[in-house]
Write a structure and sequence with these properties.
There is one protein chain. Helix 1 runs antiparallel to helix 2 and helix 2 packs across helix 3. The N terminus is likely disordered. With about 130 residues, the chain is an alpha+beta fold. Helix content is about 40%, strand content about 40%. It is built from 3 helices and 6 strands, in the order ααββαββββ. It has a 6-stranded mixed β-sheet with strand order 2-1-6-5-4-3. The longest helix has 27 residues.
Length: about 130
Amino acid sequence: MSNAASTSSTSTISTNAAIIAHSYLDTWNAADPQQRRALLESAWSEEPRYADPMMSGAGREQIDGLISAVQNRFPEWKFSLLGTPDLHGSYLRFSWSLGPAGADGPVKGTDFVVLEGGRIKDVTGFLDQIPEHA
């Protein structure tokens, strides 16, 4: 593969990874329940699963409930992408922060996503930084 083709392929992968990661975070940031459900239907598979050290859920309805609970616990806080997401086949890895809009979020984590047909199928989240009061 030529260097130009390799660079183009790497650029496409990075773009796709960023699109999927932003779509994922948009779902977590959607305060309007109808908008959030629409995002879950368009970007997530038919039977997605989510798990992190504090909560887990299976199916869009349960994941919607988890997102709503986080938003109720941290009103006005938003998820932001940290760094550059990595995509390898059907696996996506990215880091994020949660905090007041425009500020360095005090909560940080890394999520590992399994994709199915380009849609989010399975998420395993790790919490990298949690303040004592969170």
